[in-house]
Design brief:
Shape: globular
Order of helices and strands: HHEHHEHEHHHHHEEHEEH
Helix content: 40-55%
Radius of gyration: 22 Å
Strand order of the largest sheet: 2-1-3-4-6
Number of helices: 12
Largest sheet: 5 strands, parallel
Number of strands: 7
Length: 340
Amino acid sequence: MKQIKLFFLGVAIFVLFYGIALINVTLLREPKYLQFSELWVSDIYKIKDFINVQSHAKPRILFFGGSSTLFGFNGELIDSQTSFIPINYGTHAGLPLNFHVDKIMQVAREYDTILLPLEFGYYYANIPNNDDWYIHNMIAWGGDYRKYISNSNIIRAYFQNTPVSIFHRWFKGINAKQEDIIESMQEIWKNGQHAFNYGYQSLSKYGDYCTQEGVIKEFITSDYLGEHSKISSFFIDEYNRLVAFAQSKNIKIFLIYPPTMENPNFSLNDLKTFRKIENLKAELKKHNIEIYGDFRDFHFEQQYFFNSAYHLNSEGAALRTQAFIKLLKQMQKDGLLGTH
């Protein structure tokens, strides 16, 4: 009998502490913790928003997309070699197109130029209903952003937290020092970058990751896109919504190619690769949408990639940036952009 009482007492104590930890971590603490939330993305957006509100004499170009954009440019090169000031709003390809479009509508200014070097998956993705990664992150740090998220999605998200993860996050947060990330970032820009890490501390003053050293060690293959894939109605609807906004603000919108890695499934030596790109262009053309540039200019050997088939290392980011600068200047010559 005594052992039974001790058992139930232990269960009661566990439930009590778990309940306290659960409420603290998922409801009271900001940002909220959920199983698939990546809070570093939230911090990165805070820094990019800080960069965005600064005043500049030069016209602005803003990049939006997933992590291939975040890892893919060197803003200092663009600033020094062109008449534009770049702001890199690239973050995570797990965020659906509607989130990026709404972010553009929130931060873009009249007469800005918006570049979308979207990962190919964006052209074929559908509405992010029941996408756990998206749901968890929007609850954790998206504020009031609940597009395509139902109450049942929110309830399920909270129940997906495990006791181990909740207690880990709870104890990790006890007596945790709250830092002013804007102040910390300014100190880093003043004193020099530290070793690269997945966090706001590695951002350049243009919003790039461009200091990551190293090369992918394992052999990676990627198809990137299908040979007969169809553009989703979700992409068309969101893109048209963005274009309507841009026209009302005298903003220019351009789709350009993301970086790709030479590999057996996407090779310049394989005609199938070219058929994939031609299919994408033809699908976009059906909706009077153009993608600018030549994908081959943004296609690199594996030695220029850091840790995935979309993440360039610092050398690769510099090469991709030079290719972009060439495209940018050609677009100016063609009258697509002002020469300023």
